[in-house]
Amino acid sequence: MIDFLTNDQKLNLAKQKFLNLTGNIDGSITREQSNKILKELFTTTSVTEINRLLYDEDTNLDNKIVFDP
Description:
The chain is mostly helical.
């Protein structure tokens, strides 16, 4: 089913999963958690592309991704 969603729908789903994982405590999740979400949502995206995206988003290199809702 995930493969039939638009990118906007996938982004909204990722936001929801992110909020479920963080519980709005500190607004961040680990790279591993982010990687799992992205692999689930973007099944045709390569591991290299996902890693590049996560690296770009981890701006302070603390292995956490901050996602503003």
